[in-house]
From TrEMBL:
Pfam families: Topo_C_assoc, Topoisom_I. It comes from Muraenolepis orangiensis. GO terms for cellular component: chromosome; nucleolus. GO terms for biological process: chromosome segregation; DNA replication; DNA topological change. Belongs to the type IB topoisomerase family. InterPro entries: DNA_brk_join_enz (IPR011010), TopoI (IPR001631), TopoI_C_dom (IPR025834), TopoI_cat_a-hlx-sub_euk (IPR014711), TopoI_cat_a/b-sub_euk (IPR014727), TopoI_cat_euk (IPR013500), TopoI_euk (IPR013499), TopoIB_AS (IPR018521). It is an enzyme of class 5 (isomerase). Residues 1-264 form the DNA topoisomerase I eukaryotic-type domain. This is DNA topoisomerase. Residues 180-231 form a coiled coil. One of its GO terms (molecular function) is DNA binding. The keyword rRNA-binding does not apply. Its EC number is 5.6.2.1. The keyword Cytoplasm does not apply.
Length: 292
C-alpha cells in the first residue's frame, strides 16, 4: 500500500547480488532463505513474531525477534509453503525490482534510504532523551556516544572487542584507584586547613588563601575521577560496537553539528579532521535549531 513503506523499521540491508569473487554466504532482505526465519504465533508475550537469524554484510550475525502485523505474518507463512530450507524466501523478488517499486512511491526512495532515515531519526530522538546542558563535557560526550550506539545497534554494526581491551581497561581502573586515593588525601588536607583557620579565631588572609587552594585541589581531583569513570563506562559499552560506520554513512551530520552548538561542545570532540572536511557543507550551513 501507499503508506506501508513508512512502517519499515528493521533497517535491514536490501541484499544485493554478490560481486564476483565474494565467497561468504551473506544475505540481506531480498536474498533471505527459508532457513533464516522462524515464525511464532506467540512468543515472549507478543503475537505474530518473526525470528531472524542470518549472516549479514562482513559475516556479522543478525539475530532479532520482531512482532509484525497479521497480514505480514500470513504472507510469510504463504512464502514458506512447499519450500526447502535452502530455498529463497522471496523467490519472485530482487533488489532492483524492490528499489524500482520504492522509487515509484517516492522519487529517490530506495531500500538504503530506510536505513539512513531510521538511523538519523534514532540519533536525533536519543540525543533529545539523553542530553543535559548542565552536564560536564565528558558526560555530554557519553550521552552523544550512547545515542550513536543506539544507531549502531539498530544497523547491527558489531565488531570484535579490540585485542588490547582488557589491558587498557585494567590500566584505566588502576588510574581511577590512584586518583581516588589522591582525592581522599586532598580532602584530609582541606579539613586540616579549615581547622587551622577556625582555630585562629579571627580572619587570617594567609590561612583563607590556603583553604581556597585546598578546596580547588579537591574539586579538580573530583572532576578527574568523574571524567575517568565516564570514560570507563563509555569504553565498556563500546566494546563490541562500531560507531564509525553509522557516523560516516548513515547519520545526517547536521544533527551532530546542531547538537554541538546547542550543548556548547567542540565539534572536534565528535568529528576528527578528515570527517570535518567531509562534512564541511553541514558545518557551514547548520543553525542550532536544525530538525532532521
Amino acid at each position: 500500500g501507499e503508506k506501508d513503506w513508512e512502517k519499515y523499521e528493521l533497517a535491514l540491508r536490501a541484499g544485493n547480488e554478490k560481486e564476483e569473487g565474494e565467497s561468504a554466504d551473506t544475505v540481506g532482505c531480498c536474498s533471505l532463505r527459508v532457513e533464516h526465519i522462524t515464525l511464532h504465533h506467540k512468543m515472549d508475550g507478543s503475537d505474530f513474531v518473526v525470528e531472524f537469524d542470518f549472516l549479514g554484510k562482513d559475516s556479522i550475525r543478525y539475530y532479532n525477534k520482531v512482532p509484525v502485523e497479521k497480514k505480514v505474518f500470513k504472507n510469510l507463512t504463504l512464502f514458506l509453503e512447499n519450500k526447502e530450507p535452502g530455498d529463497e524466501l522471496f523467490d519472485r523478488l530482487n533488489t532492483s525490482m524492490l528499489n524500482k517499486h520504492l522509487s515509484s512511491l517516492m522519487s529517490g526512495l530506495t531500500a538504503k534510504v530506510f536505513r539512513t532515515y531510521n538511523a538519523s531519526t534514532t540519533l536525533q530522538e536519543q540525543l533529545r532523551l539523553l542530553s543535559n546542558k548542565s552536564d560536564n563535557p565528558s558526560e555530554k560526550l557519553l550521552s552523544y556516544n550512547r545515542a550513536n550506539r543506539a544507531v549502531a545497534i539498530l544497523c547491527n554494526h558489531q565488531r570484535a572487542p579490540p585485542k588490547t581491551f582488557d589491558q587498557s581497561m585494567a590500566n584505566l581502573q588502576s588510574k581511577i584507584v590512584a586518583r581516588k586515593e589522591q582525592l581522599a588525601l586532598s580532602k584530609t588536607d582541606l579539613k586540616q586547613a579549615k581547622k587551622e583557620a577556625k582555630a585562629k579565631g579571627g580572619p587570617d588572609p594567609k590561612l583563607q588563601t590556603l583553604v581556597e587552594r585546598k578546596k580547588k585541589a579537591v574539586e579538580r581531583c573530583e572532576e578527574q575521577v568523574l571524567k575517568m569513570e565516564v570514560q570507563a563506562t563509555d569504553r565498556e559499552e563500546n566494546k563490541q560496537i562500531s560507531l564509525g560506520t553509522s557516523k560516516l554513512n548513515y547519520l545526517d551530520p547536521r544533527i551532530s553539528v546542531a547538537w554541538c552548538k546547542n550543548m556548547d561542545v567542540l565539534l572536534d570532540k565528535i568529528y576528527n579532521k578528515t570527517q570535518r572536511e567531509k562534512f564541511a557543507w553541514a558545518i557551514d550551513m547548520t543553525e542550532d535549531d536544525f530538525e532532521f
